[in-house]
Amino acid sequence: MLAGDHTGWPRPEAKRLRERTHERMTSWESPIHQAAFQLRQVCQTLAHRPLSLWDSEYGCASFVLKIADIKADKLMRLRSNRNLWGAPPPDSGRGQPRVHGECFKLNAPTIWHTID
C-alpha cells in the first residue's frame, strides 16, 4: 500500500531541519507532477501491483491522466465541491456534439439522481 500527500509537517522544535522540512521541487514542477513521477518510479521496482491512496489534492483530471498507464490500483479522495460529468447524450445531428453529459455535484445531495 502506498500513500501520497504533499502536506507539510512543521517541526518547530527541530533546530537543524529548517531547510529540510520539505522535499525540494524546481519552479517548473508541481506536487502533481512530482507525485506521478514518484509513483512511476516506485511501481517499477515492486513485484506486485500496489494500492495507492491519494489525498484530495490529487483527485483531479490532470493527475489521473498522468498516472493512467501506471500498473497500480488508485484510490483518490475527492473534494466536496468537485463536479463529475457523465457521458454526453447521443449526437442529435444539429450543432456541435456535446462534450459532457449530466452534472453530478458532490456537495448538492438534493439533486443527485437515483442509483442505477
Describe the structure in your own words.
The protein has 116 residues and is α/β, with parallel strands linked by helices. The chain has a domain at 2-80. It contains 2 helices and 5 strands; from the N terminus they run βαβαβββ. The chain has helices spanning 31-45, 61-67; strands at residues 2-4, 51-54, 73-76, 83-85, 103-105. The strands form 2 sheets. Strands 1-2-3 form a 3-stranded parallel β-sheet, with no helix packed on it. The chain has a two-stranded antiparallel sheet with strand order 4-5. Helix 1 (31-45) links the parallel strand 1 and strand 2 (51-54). Helix 1 runs parallel beside helix 2. It starts with a strand and ends in an 11-residue tail after the last strand. The mean pLDDT is 86.
Task: Produce the secondary structure layout.
Elements: E1 2-4, H1 31-45, E2 51-54, H2 61-67, E3 73-76, E4 83-85, E5 103-105
Parallel strand pairs: 1-2, 2-3
Antiparallel strand pairs: 4-5
Attribute tags:
2 helices; about 120 residues; 5 strands; 3-stranded parallel beta sheet; two-stranded antiparallel sheet; elongated; alpha/beta
In short:
The chain is an alpha/beta fold.
Number of helices: 2
Tell me, briefly, the overall form: elongated
What value does the average pLDDT take? 86
How much strand? 5-15%
Low-confidence segments: none
Strand order within the widest beta sheet: 1-2-3
Termini gap: 31 Å
- Percent of residues in helices: 10-25%
Computed over alpha carbons, the radius of gyration is 19 Å
Structural class by sheet pairing and helices: alpha/beta
Write down the secondary-structure element order. Answer: EHEHEEE
The number of E-state strands comes to 5
